[in-house]
Design a protein that fits this description.
328 residues; alpha/beta; Rossmann fold; six-stranded mixed sheet; four-stranded parallel sheet; 12 helices; 10 strands; 35% helix; 16% strand; globular
Length: 328
């Protein structure tokens, strides 16, 4: 497909991201690791894809009639994408994020002119200590707002089925043996996984899940896991303590757990050995993909996603106390 010389606006820049071979994690004669560089999207993350798709669909179906504000709960990247794209649809944005979201993400949201609420037990919103609940409470009380609801809106999965999923499935001569991704909303792994399974049922879809997330126990049927053992990962955008409706376990073949420290160490590896300044969930995906590369007994193509840019985590990656809390 010929790339046009000029795009009419930023929407045309979303998607068709590059696929790069990760040589330092590949094993000669065995697993070859490849990654989609989603930081090439305009706002710097994979979430541009779903926000564009969901807003265009909402506009087309009349859901934005009488609406002046988009509301959403996000660990940061979706909030940034909404903050960037809302103005393209003539809308304002009110965004609810966890208080421990990285400083860089907060700065990006503000720079796009969106209204931001940082929610935690120490900084509740209308009595809500959970950012997702806070967004729902606000949207319920404002008739001119529209809650995008990325965790439960099926258009999240559809966006990746039609976009990222098609790009991945058509790469490498359509020979994808494994696809690896973390999951929070579930949209990426569910949408891409479904597309890959339709193309070749033999493709294995692997969910990389942080220790403390609920998805591992849901997948393996050990739901009696004690609630006090569930915790939010320090890898922003990976795992959940409550399962999102968009997580489709039917397309997932295996869930592989990782710990936060190992994911952060792999993030540094990608920075220093692959010259790729990518984010924390990229480190998690690369970590699990590298395990698969070593496990396979013969040639295999392993594709993963690097969801965002590492520049939005530098305040954490250079914070000695934060690293020490992970025992790094």
């Amino acid at each position: 497909m010929r790339i046009p010389d000029v795009y009419s606006n930023v929407l045309g820049l979303i998607g068709n991201t590059p696929l790069v071979h990760i040589s330092s994690l590949s094993v000669k004669g065995k697993g070859q690791v490849y990654a989609k560089l989603e930081n090439a999207n305009p706002s710097g993350s994979v979430k541009d894809r779903i926000v564009k798709f969901m807003l265009e669909n909402a506009a087309k179906t009349g859901l934005l009639k009488g609406v002046d504000t988009i509301v959403e709960a996000s660990s940061g990247n979706t909030a940034i994408s909404i903050a960037m794209l809302a103005a393209r649809f003539g809308l304002k944005a009110k965004l609810f994020i966890p208080s421990d979201t990285s400083a860089e993400k907060k700065q990006l949201i503000k720079s796009f002119g969106a209204e931001m609420y940082c929610v935690s037990s120490g900084t509740p919103y209308e009595g809500c200590t959970d950012y997702m609940q806070a967004a729902r409470v606000y949207a319920k009380g404002d008739r001119k707002s529209y809650l995008l609801d990325q965790y439960n809106n099926a258009l999240n999965t559809e966006a990746h089925f039609h976009g990222l999923g098609k790009e991945v499935s058509s790469s490498l001569g359509k020979k994808i043996n494994f696809f690896v991704a973390t999951g929070s909303t579930g949209g990426t792994i569910s949408g891409v996984g479904r597309q890959l399974k339709e193309n070749d049922k033999r493709t294995q879809v692997i969910l990389a899940d942080p220790q403390g997330s609920i998805y591992y126990s849901h997948f393996y049927g050990t739901r009696a896991e004690r609630r006090d053992l569930l915790r939010r990962s320090k890898v922003e955008g990976a795992g959940k303590t409550m399962a999102a409706q968009n997580m489709d376990f039917g397309v997932i073949d295996r869930v592989v757990q990782f710990n936060d420290a190992a994911a952060v160490e792999m993030t540094f590896h990608l920075h220093q050995h692959e010259s790729l300044i990518v984010g924390l969930s990229s480190g998690a995906n690369a970590l699990v993909a590298s395990r698969i590369a070593r496990e396979v007994t013969g040639p295999a193509n392993i594709v993963t996603v690097f969801p965002d840019a590492g520049s939005r985590y530098l305040s954490k990656l250079t914070d000695v106390e934060w690293l020490e809390s992970l025992k790094i």
